[in-house]
Amino acid sequence: MNDLASTLVTSATAVVEFGSCAADFQRLSDAQVLEFTRAIADHKRRLGAFEAHAAAEVARRSRREFGHSGLAAREGFSSPEKMLESVTKTTGREAAQLVSLGKALDDASATQELLDTGVTEIAGEPLVLPWDAPIAAAVASGDLSVDCAGALRRGLGRPTEQVGIEALRELATRLVDEATTLSADHAYKTARLERDLIDLTGVKARQQELYERGGFRLYAKANGMYGFAGEADPESAAALSAALDPFTSPRRGGPRFVDPDEQRRAQAIVDDQRTTDRIALDALVELVRVGAGADPQKAQSRMRPLVKLVATEETIRTGIGFGVIENDQSPISPESVAADLCCGDSVELTVTVDGMPLNLGRTQRLYNQRQREALASRDGGCLWPDCHQPPAFTEAHHIRHWKRDHGATDIDDGVLLCRFHHLLLHNNHWEIRRFGREAVDGRRASGSGNGFWLVPPRAVDPEQVPIPLRSKSPVIRHLQRERTG
């Protein structure tokens, strides 16, 4: 039995060892349920390699040159994707992803076999591994799911003159290990961001591409309602979110408020009998009505939603580099940073070349709010591992507790955590410590990027091995990478 088949049998055996009916599963301990879930995920990853190979074989036997004698045509389908969609009962997108990934597996395998036999060129052209060979290899070994592999390939794009095959393959190799711990959605965003960071000159073009793909359509439905359809580019979405978040964030895990008036307002939203979606729609309609009746030449800036941009002082000064939209962390070009700041609807949160907050702009805020903005520019959102809540949905946590440790309200001793993880930390006795760059249990804190480490309680990890916390801000991560070379 070959390795691919034996690992599939092993993973299937690991799943069935947990039981075969609801009664068996209900008797499992909490730890066993987690292991059961992990075993299922492991088996699905290994089965994914078979799915991709099967899809590639269907596509190979249905090639256009075979005409109506091809496999898909003989079965009555116009394409291998249509056949797979019907046979596997998946969506068209999933079927197309399987075919594309299967071809990538075959191409990588065939190229590697030729290279192993000493073939270095074909028809005078050098023979090189495809850029996505590391992704194909991770699928073939069962380390990467089909969905995550598709997300990485979409996020990384294609080789260009600026980013050649070798550079893109090297980036894919680096991201494969990280992607094994991410969901498909976050794998895509990570890959897209990393592609932007190695090709800063292309940020403007990719930003324009997203802008041109955006659009909005309102249409009548047969049930008497009206539907919305469309997509928004990150800049447009940031403006919409900034306008709508105040109306709904208390329902969606937004930060808790200290000010009594803000507390009452938030509680009123929580107690509102309308659904969250209905509140959002009512808010959007009201904003449109107000906006439609306002003279753009006389509208005050305080009436407009404020979008916060994070950029380095050097980018603001020289126009070289990139910025990000605070709550989305999508890279935007220096030209967009300058234009958005010029129109007055945005404010910059500037950092030094070391990633430290430098200038919090000209907003009229209380000092505590300005500190939060400094933390937002440094942390980029909730610092908890694998949490992707944006800064607007976080709270400032004292790593040296206010009462217990007599901690000061100091940026160096503060981190951003979403409400869920903030409460989890206090209730379950996690700790966050700042070690600078010295060694922690034999590891250097340089991996954390900001010197903060998460220490689990003994109930979770008896050894209490510190977990490095990384900034979620692309600007900070890019600066750290440049500094470490």
From TrEMBL:
Database matches in Pfam families = DUF222 (PF02720)
Q: Which InterPro entries match?
A: DUF222 (IPR003870), HNH_nuc (IPR003615)
UniProt xrefs under SMART domains: HNHc (SM00507)
Taxonomic superkingdom = Bacteria
Q: Where is the HNH nuclease domain?
A: 370-423
Q: Which residues form the signal peptide?
A: none
Its protein name is HNH nuclease domain-containing protein
Q: Which organism is it from?
A: Leifsonella bigeumensis
The lineage is:
Bacteria, Bacillati, Actinomycetota, Actinomycetes, Micrococcales
